[in-house]
Amino acid sequence: MDKKAWIKYLMLTLTVVLGIIATNTKFAAASEEPHYVITTDTTYPPFELQDKNGKYVGIDIDILKAIAKREHFTFKLVPMSFNSGAQAVLSGQIDGIMAGMAITPARKLVYDFGTPYYKTGVITAVAKNSSIKSLNDLRGKTVALKTGTGAAAYALTIQKKYGFKVTYFNDSNTMYNDVALGNTVATFEDEPVMKYAIQNGVKLKVLTKPANSGYYGFGVKKGHNQALIEKFNAGFAAIKKDGTYDKIVAKYIGAEESTFAGSAKVNNSIWGLLNQNKSQFLAGIGQTLMLTILGIILATIFGMVIGLLAIVPNKISHGFASTVIYIFRGLPLLVLAFFIYIGIPSLTGHKLSALFSGLLTLTLNEGAYIAAFVAGGLKSVDNGQMEAARSLGLSYWKAMRKVVLPQGVKLMVPSFINQFIITLKDTSILSAIGIIELTQTGTVIISRNSQGFRIWFLVAMMYLIVITLLTFLAKWADKRFGNN
């Protein structure tokens, strides 16, 4: 590919990326009504979940929609794990959180809460066939807790008394299944959430009466978004007064998923689940492929530049490239994603969209690996090739572009395709910052229908199909462009 073609290729890529980021970013100034970004945990039914049409529903969501309509503001809902969402609010990335958040003294130090909207209590649940009869039977055994929740905090206050060990999960359904399978012996959860899960197929039973009663609240970062809190309070008072609140709660508490999921009869066969959730699966696959393709394109550009700097006979450029490769190849992808999405805004005060943060994460991490094998591929080209080109009067960079690089690329082709496959699998980690790709799509669907085995089987098959196609592409590319 000549120089002009490379420039066109780069400009096209940047245009596509900027276009996608622009279409996913909304500015409040563009609307007459105030616009807010609010996070929720969509794996926490009956307060937050996604129906079979991909719409967010539940007590929290319906309350928020009713208040927004009355108080004339709009909002964008950003679903992510509870712990990640709570951190995103404190970093300034998100304006508010509506996710069944228990109001506690510790949280009051860093959050401002609106009017408490639901009273709850913590209960303990065990597997249906469990021999555990009381909390005293937990001594020496391991219980499952959901990271960052009020139920987890309560469990820790009684841990020493009852002598149990703990392990943590980021979503409710995985935690429930861990107990049902016997890997852990019990879990602590808010009463309405646990009872809803049991009513909709989770194979657990309630062990204790509600304890540590408290209230859920809508939260914002302390000292920020006071106008939003005022609107929430005014709107909540209005829906409480006219009966809207009671109707919302009655719609979900004690109800089965099928009563509000838009289906009179739920087919939980493999084919039935695929057919019922095909729109969500397609959206998840589309998001995964988009992240993969854009991520590998940007990572390739970044990696090629850093890889070339790594072999330049200059100590400064070599040192810079080696440092970049060392840092971004050494950082776990999840840590890097959190640092970019939550850490940087905390330091700078400027928000970064989840899409931009996700693409930047993939670019830096995958690009570091690409840079390493680019440098290795170019170094594997015989030194005599460069010496011969220079002896003919070619400059260093011209000799690199005309002689060394074409030979090195042939050696790199299999590695490029393999990195493409790795990038596709790595996109699943980005669900932690609110990107609904294929893996998170599966998690959200399971939270609604509790069909863990069947949904994960479908998700696994989808990944295998895509990866198989990419593997065929790798073999073809190796034969077409490699050394064979």
UniProtKB/TrEMBL annotation:
Which SMART domains does this one have? PBPb
Q: Name the predominant localization.
A: membrane
What domain of life is recorded for the organism?
A: Bacteria
- GO CC terms of this entry: ATP-binding cassette (ABC) transporter complex
InterPro entries linked: AA_ABC_transptr_permease_3TM (IPR010065), ArtM/GltK/GlnP/TcyL/YhdX-like (IPR043429), MetI-like (IPR000515), MetI-like_sf (IPR035906), Solute-binding_3/MltF_N (IPR001638)
An example GO biological process term is: amino acid transport
Where is this chain's protein located in or outside the cell? Cell membrane
Per UniProt, what is the membrane topology? Multi-pass membrane protein
**A GO MF term:** transmembrane transporter activity
**UniProt KW Glycoprotein keyword:** no
Q: Which residues form the ABC transmembrane type-1 domain?
A: 285-474
Q: Give a yes or no for keyword tRNA processing in this entry.
A: no
Keyword annotations for this protein, in alphabetical order, are: Cell membrane, Membrane, Transmembrane, Transmembrane helix, Transport
Q: What residues form the membrane-spanning segments?
A: 289-312, 324-344, 356-378, 455-474
- State the similarity comment: Belongs to the binding-protein-dependent transport system permease family.
Task: Tell me which NCBIfam families the record gives.
Answer: HEQRo_perm_3TM
Q: Which PANTHER family match?
A: ABC TRANSPORTER MEMBRANE SPANNING PERMEASE-GLUTAMINE TRANSPORT, MEMBRANE COMPONENT OF AMINO ACID ABC TRANSPORTER
Protein name according to UniProt: ABC transporter substrate-binding protein/permease
Q: Which organism is it from?
A: Periweissella fabalis
